[in-house]
Amino acid sequence: MRFSSFTYLVRQGLHNMRANRLMTFASMGVLTVCMILIGVAYLLGANVDAIVEYIGEQNETIVYLQDGLTDEQIANADAAIRATPGVISVTYVSPEDVLANYSSMLDEYANMYEAFANDNPFSANYRVVIDDISRLQEVSSQLSQIEGVDEVSAPLELSRTFTSIQRVINYASYGLVAVLAIVSIVVINNTIRITVFARRKEIAIMKLVGATNGFIRFPFFVEGTTSGLISAAISSGIVCGAYYALCRWYTENPSTFSQMFGGQLVPLSSVWYYIVIGFVLLGFVLCGIGTATSIRKHLNV
Q: What pTM did the predictor assign?
């Protein structure tokens, strides 16, 4: 295609947008709303993932060692615990450290350090943090099979609850994205179909003088993709601006509830490019699909 033909077809596509501005605004409005809802669903899922990861890091799994182990047995258990897949942090706590910790916590009621200094009832243990809370039960089972380990205490019920919430929200987000994508394709398809119907005589004349299907289709493709990219720009500005304001408000108004989940939302700097690039690709692909499916049915005139 020559450059002059390309520029002509682009101008025709932009002219079609102005000539059918009511339907163009309607399709852009629906597409913008769909993208905003998709962005909200994505940000919700991202923050739920961050909360689950934070809770997983805060809830340590405690691995209790058997009493009477030799230094060699403790060293072997230590190496096995650290080598367990999924373990990212291991802290050894000696019986003396456990006694000192409880003694400082209960110093107002009794001097536990003096009472048990010669007969320490506590066992050595390891405080273990894993990389994925959804694997907590699997990793706990592996830790309990290590020689020298007496018991493994892990917040399994809490991990199941939060991983279930994470799974439900992620599935809901994916479902919402799929539904909104279908709605966007239908709206764009109908908009272009109406435009094609209004210009059916012009298309028939172009076909009679030898215009190819690609030559006829290209202005509609320009119209659809331009609408998609404009909608992507508007949606990106709204979603990123609103999320930035929400992050500032969340940081400036801390609460006990928010501190339980890390005290902050996922920073905008970590997600804005996913939103912008995702919206641009979404607008381009959805509008391209909508154009291709609607034009194909109307070229046989």
A: 0.66
**Secondary structure of 72-109 in the HEC alphabet?**
HHHHHHHHHHHHCCCEEEEEEECHHHHHHHHHHHCCCC
* Partner residues linked to 82 by β-bridges: none
Residues 6+ apart with CB under 8 A from 46: 266, 271
Listing DSSP states for 28-60 in one string gives HHHHHHHHHHHHHHHHHHHHHHHHHHHHHHHSP
**SS3 of 149, please?**
strand
Please check whether residue 76 is in contact with residue 164, taking contact to mean a CB–CB distance below 8 angstroms: no
What sign does the CA torsion over 9, 15, 20, 21 have? positive
Of the candidates 242, 235, 229, the residue with the CA atom closest to the CA atom of residue 268? 242
Contact between residue 121 and residue 186 where contact means Cβ atoms under 8 Å apart: no
Report d(CA 127, CA 120) in Å as an integer: 19
Alpha carbons 113 and 53: distance in angstroms, whole number: 36
Report how far residue 176's alpha carbon sits from residue 37's, in angstroms, rounded to the nearest whole number: 8
Amino acid (1-letter code) at residue 224: G
The number of angstroms, rounded, from the C-alpha of 216 to the middle of its chain's C-alpha atoms is 40
205-243 pLDDT, tens digit per residue, is 777 777 777 777 777 777 778 888 888 999 999 999 999
- For 197, the 3-state DSSP assignment is helix
Residues in the chain: 301
Q: Give Cβ neighbours of residue 264 (< 8 Å, ≥ 6 apart).
A: 247, 250, 251, 258
Structural tokens at position 133: 């809370």
